[in-house]
């Protein structure tokens, strides 16, 4: 009788264990199937999460989960703040997601790309401990605490956009993202249209070129281009483009006041660069006028007056540049007279 009871207990235990294992496997397969369905509904493959789906896929299932999540935290009300680059980063994140799915032949079931919007899912933001944007976080299969056990991407790595996101994923998950498939600048239809227009215009363009009647044959165009290049070079425009510097700032002490000149050598606003570039351009144009135009004037009095005006205006412009440099950096420019004059 004791042997029968032992056998009955073992059979019941094995049956119950198999039932639990099968139930867990079915539950996990259902979650993966739901995620694949949501992924297929998204054009880029990024699954949009909210508080309900975060609970369904992350907090409710027991660890280890059969998948990992890479999550982009977004806030649509902050898309207008250019310094955050949220819209651009969201597009780059979608690019990584679509490239990962394409490179893995749409058979991936281990990593899913998701995004969470602040207004819709404030509880989820609090659950992850997100208090600043941009923010990307990887939730692994064994992560129990979404805040403490998940890994945040360093904000300093966002500068390389999609490539840095792919490197972060590959270094943490040991999965291969593969090459980033960026869409072409022009579609095939647009390229075909441009080619057709070029073929139509080519005879007319060739006729103008041989007749010397194009804009490139006009000296005024070259003169204007040279002045523009000079102004672009001395105004710090390339610095403004690379650093994405604003033209002005709002005064912290008075929100109704705008700051066009920033005192301090650590930053240069676009407006002050253009102001100094304008002063340099005035001097350059006056020098060109004196050396290429004034020499053909026959009236000696007119020459002297024009020369004095050019010298006076150039002296004023250079003095303003020196004053602004001294005000901004604290460095002074001093004149030195010959020692024999002392």
Measured as a percent range, the helix fraction is: 40-55%
Could you tell me the number of beta strands? 7
> What coarse outline follows from CA principal-axis ratios?
elongated
Low-confidence stretches: 18-26
Largest sheet: 5 strands, mixed
Distance between the termini: 126 Å
**Secondary-structure element order, N to C:** HEHEHEHEEHHHHEEHH
Tell me about this structure.
Helix content is 55%, strand content 8%. The chain has a five-stranded mixed beta sheet with strand order 1-3-2-4-5, with helices on both faces. It has ten helices and seven strands. With 342 residues, the protein is of the alpha/beta class. The chain is elongated, with a radius of gyration of 34 Å.
List keywords for this structure.
single chain; 342 residues; alpha/beta; 5-stranded mixed β-sheet; 10 helices; 7 strands; 8% strand; signal; endoplasmic reticulum
């Amino acid at each position: 009788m004791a042997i029968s009871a032992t056998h009955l207990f073992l059979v019941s235990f094995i049956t119950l264990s198999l039932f639990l294992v099968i139930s867990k496997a079915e539950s996990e397969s259902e979650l993966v199937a739901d995620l694949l369905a949501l992924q297929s509904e998204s054009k880029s493959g990024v699954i949009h999460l909210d508080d309900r789906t975060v609970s369904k896929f992350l907090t409710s299932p027991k660890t280890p989960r059969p998948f990992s999540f890479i999550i982009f935290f977004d806030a649509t009300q902050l898309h207008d703040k250019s310094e955050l680059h949220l819209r651009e980063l969201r597009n780059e994140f979608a690019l990584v997601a679509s490239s990962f799915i394409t490179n893995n032949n749409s058979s991936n079931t281990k990593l899913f790309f998701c995004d969470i919007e602040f207004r819709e899912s404030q509880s989820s933001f609090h659950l992850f401990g997100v208090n600043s944007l941009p923010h990307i976080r990887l939730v692994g299969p064994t992560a129990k605490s979404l805040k403490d056990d998940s890994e945040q991407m360093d904000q300093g790595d966002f500068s390389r956009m999609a490539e840095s996101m792919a490197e972060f994923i590959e270094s943490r998950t040991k999965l291969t993202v593969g090459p980033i498939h960026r869409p072409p600048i022009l579609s095939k239809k647009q390229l075909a249209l441009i080619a057709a227009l070029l073929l139509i215009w080519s005879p007319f363009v060739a006729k103008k070129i041989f007749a010397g009647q194009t804009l490139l044959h006009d000296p005024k165009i070259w003169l204007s281009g040279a002045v523009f290049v000079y102004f672009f070079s001395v105004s710090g425009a390339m610095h403004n483009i690379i650093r994405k510097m604003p033209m002005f700032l709002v005064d912290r002490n008075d929100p109704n006041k705008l700051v066009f000149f920033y005192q301090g050598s650590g930053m240069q606003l676009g407006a002050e660069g253009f102001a100094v570039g304008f002063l340099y351009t005035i001097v350059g144009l006056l020098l060109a006028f004196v050396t290429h135009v004034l020499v053909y004037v026959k009236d000696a009095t007119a020459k002297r007056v024009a020369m004095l005006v050019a010298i006076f205006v150039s002296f004023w412009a250079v003095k303003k540049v020196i004053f602004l440099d001294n005000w901004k950096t604290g460095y002074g420019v001093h004149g030195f007279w010959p020692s024999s004059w002392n």
